[in-house]
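Quick note —
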Amino acid sequence: MSHLIDEFKANNKAVGFVPTMGALHNGHLSLVEKGLSENDVVVVSIFVNPTQFDNKEDLIKYPRTLDADVKLLKTVSTDKVIVYAPSVEDIYNDDVQSQSFKFDGLENEMEGAFRDGHFDGVGTIVKRLFEIVIPNRAYFGEKDFQQLQIIKKLVELYHIPVKVIGCPIHRAKDGLAMSSRNTRLSEEHRNAAPFIYKILKTAKTKFGTKSAKKVKEWVEKQFNKQPLLELEYFIIADTKTLKPVKRKSTKKTYRAFIAVYAGDIRLIDNIALN
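Predicted structure written out below.
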């Protein structure tokens, strides 16, 4: 990988980077296409990172579909996409553990509060991959908006010379945010899951006239009536600090963040509110 990157850089080729955990879908492809529009080549890493799973069973069950992923990437480009699929040993040697990070408090909100050590794992793997691939630009989906903000902070804190670019959430026709986990949903839960985005859209409308507290209470009531989906959290937060809003300000931007269990599959989503 290093030799290849050195060769690209020697020929003044811009390198884009899309880090993934595989089980690719159209959301990933949209990131690759964006990368190809702004760079000469795009490296797509496929690596199920053990240090960002707080639930070991989730790690074991996470879909691994490398051959299908490579085939899918070839539909975007046969010569400008490089797949980097390292083993756990390649990345961690014999020391599979996370570095400890402080991201100015961003790591303590939402996902950080519910998934112990998750963002230490994310920071560890992304920093390592940036060191290996040395991209000019890296592309991340806004479905993991908190992760996106944390990676921007990582780049800032460690002076990593890469431009981090957030890309819009890619959705199925029924509104469900695309995720590799969606393939594990039962038919019943898959049919129920678009309810999440429907609620987010209505919450956005309500936020125009109601307080964050009132909107949150309304969302919780809606999920209490939905037997197939269990709400873990719904939080309206400042997009910069990710702290829950207490009083609305016209000078700030807000997003609504949600985590829901559909059976034993955990789904997250978010929406810009203003």
